[in-house]
Input
Amino acid sequence: MQLIIRTYNLELRHTFRISRQSFDHKRVMVVELKVGNISGYGEASENPYYKHKLEDMIRDLLGVKREIECDTFKTPETPETFWERMYPILKHNLFALCALDIAYNDLYSRLKNKKLYELWGYSIENNILSNFTIGIDTIENMLSKMKDTPWPIYKIKLGTHEDLKIIKALRRHTNAIFRIDANCAWSVEETLSNALALKDLGVEFLEQPLPAEEVDGMRHLYKKCALPLVADESCQKESDIENCFGLFHGVNIKLVKCGGLTPARRMLHRAQELGMKKMVGCMTESSVGISAIAHLVPELDYVDMDGAVLLRQDIAEGVSLEYGKIVYSDLKGTGVKLIDLKPITKHS
Output
């Protein structure tokens, strides 16, 4: 098995702003695992909030290249066994482990001549719709983005001094479902007050209103808030599912934060056991990462997989979205095909 690492600088269609940062580009790493003429692909984007840089991901993967490339394909490891072998040597860099795990799941299912959801025994007949994200901007620009991309569900980033004014203005122009993500920007009092008004404005749930460390505040909100609460920054690794129980009504799992598809599936199963709503979200990433998320959708109550739609130009083909509906590729595995083979850097 051969390891190939490529890096890209993805340009967004519009500046993307949340409560703590804004950006026009996003650097990503695409991992390819190749056996003969069959390849699997995985992706992770760098993230300053979680202190993960591409250089560190590349260094850590190249540092364990021998362990990754060992000859396992006489009797192929399952993705679960591969992840368990990789975790002890990459547990300090779950973003890198995520890209590797997605690539291995893709490769393994292609070798089995199956789409990944087929390998898992999932049916896609009753798939939910994905939301489309509107970043913080002027009301005029947010309305323009909404008109440019008509969608049945919008995830709206907030954390400004005029949050309710924004939602009231947007609501006058659409009957779509709204989901609100404050990215830790609110206080307990703001959340309680905003939730009452937002419920009347057709908002479905609130995502991560408080910083992750404000556990007592979240416990109070869980009992008093008028809208359901979904964890994001509070839900990073597998043990966080238990920690979020009694603080949030649901969890938003990000593959890069937890280390890939393999642990994400375990987290979804545990959330199901606890009676919590299950969501998987994306970072700004290409169709490589987005296509992986699509295969988890049969297990989900909500999904945010619009990352590639926000790009000016994609580097891959795979799963796509049509007015929120998930359209799977004809290819096996996650369904990904790289179309930009001129990365910024390449390591093999």
Observations:
- The radius of gyration is 20 Å.
- The mean pLDDT is 96.
- Residues 255 and 264 are 6 Å apart (CA to CA).
